[in-house]
Amino acid sequence: xxxxxxxxxxxxxxxxxxxxxxxxxxxxxxxxxxxxxxxxxxxxxxxxxxxxxxxxxxxxxxxxxxxxxxxxxxxxxxxxxxxxxxxxxxxxxxxxxxxxxxxxxxxxxxxxxxxxxxxxxxxxxxxxxxxxxxxxxxxxxxxxxxxxxxxxxxxxxxxxxxxxxxxxxxxxxxxxxxxxxxxxxxxxxxxxxxxxxxxxxxxxxxxxxxxxxxxxxxxxxxxxxxxxxxxxxxxxxxxxxxxxxxxxxxxxxxxxxxxxxxxxxxxxxxxxxxxxxxxxxxxxxxxxxxxxxxxxxxxxxxxxxxxxxxxxxxxxxxxxxxxxxxxxxxxxxxxxxxxxxxxxxxxxxxxxxxxxxxxxxxxxxxxxxxxxxxxxxxxxxxxxxxxxxxxxxxxxxxxxxxxxxxxxxxxxxxxxxxxxxxxxxxxxxxxxxxxxxxxxxxxxxxxxxxxxxxxxxxxxxxxxxxxxxxxxxxxxxxxxxxxxxxxxxxxxxxxxxxxxxxxxxxxxxxxxxxxxxxxxxx
Length: 522
Known about the structure:
Layout: H1 6-18, H2 23-42, E1 50-54, H3 58-72, E2 77-81, H4 89-97, E3 101-104, H5 112-120, E4 123-127, H6 139-154, E5 160-164, E6 186-190, E7 208-212, E8 226-228, H7 231-237, E9 252-256, H8 263-276, E10 280-286, H9 287-293, E11 301-305, H10 318-324, E12 330-333, H11 341-351, E13 361-363, H12 366-371, E14 385-387, H13 391-398, H14 406-417, E15 420-423, E16 428-431, E17 437-440, H15 452-465, H16 470-492, H17 501-514
Parallel strand pairs: 1-2, 1-4, 2-3, 4-5, 5-6, 6-7, 8-17, 9-10, 9-12, 10-11, 12-13, 13-14, 14-15
Antiparallel strand pairs: 15-16, 16-17
Helix pairs in contact: 2-3, 3-4, 5-6, 7-16, 8-15, 8-17, 15-16, 16-17
């Protein structure tokens, strides 16, 4: 599913019109799709009436068409003109001719009628602004939206808010919000969802996202560089698991991780790689850490490494890594390494070493913090990498201010560095060096706990070892990681999950995603 700016959507709609699909047909299609969705939502409501909030532009026209169709289907509808006028005079007149009750906000003094209609409604259809780029919330409209928000807050289950394209009060491109912006239960994206739905703070107001087809040919979205990750993409790229195979069939992984303070990070990453399907995982870790971890993790093989006085990896480990690196299909560097002069020297000697050829690499956690101290590090790297920073790590890598836009920054620097970036957050961004971005819009507060990032790094590294392209490995890894957490949160709620809880859920999530895809017999 592609994600567009308001300008891109206008251009695509115009292309559709130029191809022979009239604007009126698009609006009628949109109204019909909206009406069908409203009906499906009313089936679960004890109230069967619809209050349509109609604005001045095409979004209001879509709401008028949907209202007319709902009325034709004998569903009680009231239209509330939230602004003084509508540009869709023909659609408005059709509603009048159909004897639909219309209320003009300008004549509703004190909003007494609106108050009563809110009490009567099972669904409030928000058709005020949508993806219009010239939104202006004046005092009158602000009062309307504030009253609806107050009623929703007082009785959250009394009615549902369905917003067409965008909840009113949210900018469709940058996600900024007005103080009176609506919080939708469902946002109905017409044609394609808009960028503002996935940018904070607006992303917190969209509720469930549903895309509605309105008759625009799919090929008109082909050149849009941003998309939403979904199950079909992951299914398409999941590596096959032939019945006749061995541990050598599914990748050999080297994980360089761990320090006395962060032994758990190395353990979690190793287990995650195995649970994702790697055939063999070797953990290269300081000798003192190896002695403690090995009895708890018998499935792994080990490469004990020289260490500094503080028990951390140092550059004396580089020749040893160099002598074994050719055996592996992918490498993960960074989980729990710690950050000091010894680890920085090790990372610099390993990553920026023209005499060493690394396999596809995931760089995580302290691996990122270390390279952030190396000027123009990317000019010294020749192997494909996936960088997995969270917000603070991305700030260190880029020297950007705290309020950077994740989508813009991930795209900009993945191209500048010529590497894949998986920027972690409540909404994660996977950006590739060719300018394409994938959004994983599955925020889950359960993942806000230590160790979940190490697990994600292990998952992505496993897929690299299974011969996936770095960008594909990253987006599949992020999706599976979020789906595993989603299954756990369905039981636990929004808190209390430990990172280790994710480990056993990984293969279950993969199996659920694969669905009815048949086994490959070779």
